[in-house]
Design goal:
The complex is a heterodimer of chains A (56) and B (571). By secondary structure, chain A is mainly alpha-helical. Helix content of chain A is 46%, strand content 0%. Chain B has 571 residues and is mostly helical. In chain B, 78% of the residues lie in helices and 0% in strands. Chain B contains 21 helices and no strands. The chains are: A mainly alpha (56), B mainly alpha (571). At the A-B interface, helix 1 of A face helix 2, helix 5, helix 9, helix 12 and helix 17 of B.
C-alpha cells in the first residue's frame, strides 16, 4: 500500500503574519481595551435596566 | 413602488455589486481568493463582521418582534461583547500563529483529520441550510408584498451574490460588505428619524416610549432566571455567550472575515468594534419596531399584516366573517386610539390619576384588539388551511411600503437586499473555502496546485450558491425566520464550540475521545430538540458542555486514543 500523500499547503506558508504581540493603537495594552468593551457592556445593561424600570 | 424608488434600489445594489467585482478583478491566486491579500484594516473587518451577521431577516423580523413582543430580544446579544474579548485574546493569536485558511484546519493540527472533517461537515450542514434561508427570507416577503415572482426574486438575489463572490472571493465579500453596512446603518437611522417624524405632533419620543411601556413593550432587561424563557439576562449572558463564541470563533463565515486582517491587532480591533456597536445597533432596530407600534396606536393597522393572504381569505366563503371582524377591529382600534390620546394628554399634563386611568383603559382596549386579531387569524386558518398565520415578519416592510415617502421606500428595500446579499456572500464564500480546504484538498486532491485550487474554490462557491437558491426556492415559510436561523445555529454551534474549547484549553485530551464526544453530544442535542421544550439558546451550552465533559471522561478511559499533532497548540 503506498504511503498516504501529505496534502500540499494551499500556498507556501509565509514566514509569519506580523507581530503577534503588537500593542493596540490606543489605551496602551490589550487588557485595557478589553476592559473598555466589558465596561461598555455593563453600562449598557445598567442603562437598559433603568430604561425598563422607568417605562414599564 | 415609484420610479424614484426603483432608481434608488437598483442603483444602490448595482453600484455595490459592480464596485465589488471591479475592485477585486485582479484576484488570481488561491491565497488571495480564500483570505484576501491579508491586508484588511480594522474598520473593514469590523463592518464586514457586522454585515455578515446582519442578514435581511434582521430587518424583516426584528422590528416585527419588537412590535409583537417588546424589546427583550436585545438580551440575546449580551454575551457577544464577552465573546469578542475571548476570541481576540485567545482564538485570533492561535489562528495567526498557525497561519490557517479555515478554523477547522487548526483542529487537524491539534487533533487529527477526522475531527477536522467532522467539525467542517457540521459547519457545512448548518451553514448550507442557513444560506438558503438567508436568500429565501427576504425573497418570500418581498415577492408577496411587491407582487414579484418568488422564484425570480430568489434567482436574481442569488445570481448577483454568486457573481461577485466568485469573481473576487473573500476580498470582494469584505469590500462589498463595507458599502452594504454603510447603506444599512444609514437606512436604519433615516428610518428611525422618519418614523418618529410621522408620529402625531403631541407625541414626543418620551411619550411614545411611555405608551409602548404601558402595553408591555419596554421590557429590555429581565433578571428573572427561567430556563424556559428564551430571552432574559441569564440566557443572553450564558447561552448568548456560547452562541457568539461559536459563531464568531469557529464559524468559517465569520472567521474568514478576520483571518484576512493585516495583523493580529487589526483583526482584534475589528472584533472589538463589533463588540461595542452590535448591542446599540440591535437596540435601535428594536426601537424602530416600537415606534412603528406606537404609530399604529394612532393609525389603524391591518387586522392581518400579510395583505395578499388576507385578500385571498376574503375571496373564500369566509369573506363575510372576515368583513364582520374587520368592523370589530375598527371599533376596537378607535377605542384604543381614544385611550392612547387620553394617556398622551395625561402624561403631558403630569396628571397622575388621569394617567393611571388612561393606562388601564389602554391596556383593556389593546387586549380587545388582540382578541379580534386572534379571531381573524382563526378565520383565515379555516379559509386557507395552509396559510402562514404568523405575520410579524410583514409588519415593518408593510409599514415602509405604505407610509414612507418615495425614495425612502427604495432605500429601505436596498437596506434589506444589501443585508441579504452581505450575509449570503459570506456564507457562500466560507462554504466554498471549507469545501476546498478541509475536504477536497484534504481528502480528494491533496496535490492540487494553486491554479487548480483557485478553480475548485470558485466551482464550490457556485455549487453552494446554486444549492442555496434551490433550497430557497423549495423551502416552506417557517414559523419565525430569525428564530429558525438561530435555532438551526444553536443545534450545531454548541458541539463545534465544544470541540474548539477542548482543543484550546484541555491540552491532555486527544483526538479520538474528542471525536467520539462530539458525535454523542450532537446526537443528544438533536434528540433534545425534538423531545423537549428547552429554550434553544441552551442547546449551545448543553452541546458544548457535553463535548467537554464527555471528552474528559473518554480520555480517562481511553488513554491511548487519538494523537496530538506536534504542530497543534493549546493555550
Amino acid at each position: 500500500m503506498p504511503p498516504p500523500v501529505k496534502p500540499a499547503p494551499v500556498t507556501p506558508p509565509p514566514p509569519g503574519r506580523g507581530d503577534l504581540d503588537a500593542p493596540p493603537p490606543l489605551l496602551g495594552r490589550w487588557r485595557n481595551l478589553y476592559l473598555l468593551v466589558l465596561g461598555t457592556l455593563g453600562a449598557l445593561v445598567l442603562a437598559f435596566w433603568l430604561f425598563t424600570k422607568a417605562y414599564s | 413602488m415609484t420610479a424614484i424608488d426603483w432608481t434608488v434600489l437598483v442603483g444602490t445594489i448595482a453600484f455595490i455589486a459592480i464596485y465589488g467585482t471591479w475592485k477585486t478583478r485582479h484576484v488570481q491566486t488561491a491565497q488571495s481568493y480564500l483570505r484576501g491579500d491579508d491586508d484588511l484594516r480594522w474598520p473593514t473587518i469590523g463592518l464586514s463582521i457586522m454585515a455578515t451577521q446582519a442578514s435581511a431577516i434582521t430587518f424583516l423580523s426584528v422590528p416585527g418582534q419588537a412590535y409583537e413582543d417588546g424589546m427583550r430580544f436585545v438580551q440575546f446579544y449580551f454575551g457577544l461583547p464577552i465573546a469578542m474579548v475571548i476570541i481576540s485574546a485567545v482564538f485570533v493569536p492561535i489562528y495567526y500563529r498557525l497561519n490557517v485558511f479555515t478554523a477547522y484546519e487548526y483542529l487537524e493540527k491539534r487533533f487529527d483529520p477526522k475531527t477536522r472533517v467532522l467539525a467542517a461537515t457540521l459547519f457545512m450542514i448548518g451553514r448550507g441550510l442557513a444560506a438558503g434561508i438567508s436568500i429565501y427570507a427576504p425573497a418570500i416577503i418581498l415577492s408577496t408584498l411587491l407582487g414579484w415572482s418568488l422564484n425570480l426574486t430568489n434567482l436574481v438575489l442569488g445570481t448577483i451574490v454568486i457573481i461577485y463572490t466568485v469573481s473576487g472571493g473573500s476580498k470582494a465579500v469584505s469590500q462589498t460588505q463595507k458599502q452594504q453596512m454603510m447603506v444599512i446603518m444609514g437606512g436604519i437611522i433615516v428610518a428611525a428619524v422618519v418614523i418618529a417624524y410621522r408620529l402625531p405632533d403631541d407625541v414626543t419620543l418620551g411619550t411614545a416610549t411611555s405608551l409602548a411601556g404601558a402595553l408591555g413593550r419596554i421590557n429590555v432587561v429581565d433578571f428573572e432566571f427561567d430556563l424556559n424563557n428564551r430571552y432574559n439576562f441569564w440566557s443572553g449572558i450564558t447561552g448568548g455567550l456560547f452562541l457568539a463564541l461559536s459563531y464568531f470563533g469557529t464559524d468559517q463565515s465569520q472567521v474568514q472575515r478576520y483571518l484576512g486582517g493585516r495583523s493580529v491587532a487589526e483583526s482584534r480591533l475589528g472584533l472589538l468594534f463589533n463588540g461595542m456597536l452590535k448591542i446599540p445597533m440591535q437596540f435601535l432596530i428594536l426601537f424602530i419596531g416600537i415606534l412603528v407600534f406606537v404609530f399604529f396606536l394612532f393609525e389603524r393597522p391591518p387586522v392581518f399584516f400579510n395583505q395578499p393572504t388576507l385578500d385571498a381569505a376574503k375571496r373564500t366563503a369566509h369573506g363575510p366573517a372576515i368583513a364582520s371582524l374587520e368592523a370589530d377591529w375598527q371599533r376596537a382600534f378607535e377605542a384604543r386610539r381614544d385611550q392612547a390620546v387620553a394617556l398622551t394628554a395625561a402624561l403631558d399634563r403630569g396628571d397622575a390619576a388621569a394617567e393611571a386611568a388612561a393606562r388601564e383603559g389602554l391596556q383593556g382596549a389593546h387586549a380587545q384588539m388582540n382578541t379580534v386579531r386572534a379571531e381573524a387569524k382563526a378565520v383565515i386558518a379555516q379559509a386557507l388551511p395552509k396559510a402562514e398565520l404568523k405575520d410579524s415578519d410583514y409588519i415593518f416592510v408593510s409599514f415602509v411600503l405604505k407610509y414612507l415617502p418615495p425614495g425612502l421606500v427604495g432605500l429601505l428595500l436596498a437596506v434589506i437586499l444589501s443585508a441579504a446579499m452581505s450575509s449570503t456572500a459570506s456564507e457562500l464564500n466560507a462554504l466554498g473555502s471549507t469545501s476546498v480546504v478541509d475536504l477536497y484538498k484534504r481528502l480528494i486532491r491533496p496535490d492540487a496546485d494553486d491554479a487548480h485550487t483557485l478553480r475548485a474554490s470558485k466551482l464550490f462557491t457556485i455549487f453552494w450558491g446554486c444549492l442555496a437558491v434551490a433550497f430557497a426556492t423549495f423551502a416552506a415559510l417557517v414559523d419565525n425566520l430569525i428564530q429558525a436561523v438561530n435555532i438551526l445555529g444553536s443545534i450545531f454551534y454548541g458541539v463545534i464550540l465544544g470541540i474548539f474549547l477542548v482543543a484550546f484549553f484541555l491540552k491532555r485530551v486527544r483526538g479520538t475521545p474528542t471525536f467520539a464526544a462530539a458525535v454523542i453530544a450532537q446526537l443528544t442535542v438533536v434528540a433534545l430538540f425534538f423531545s423537549s421544550d428547552i429554550g434553544f439558546l441552551w442547546f449551545n451550552v448543553i452541546g458544548c458542555a457535553l463535548v467537554v465533559g464527555l471528552a474528559l471522561a473518554l480520555q480517562a478511559v481511553l488513554p491511548g486514543g487519538g494523537r496530538t499533532h506536534p504542530e497543534g497548540e493549546s493555550v
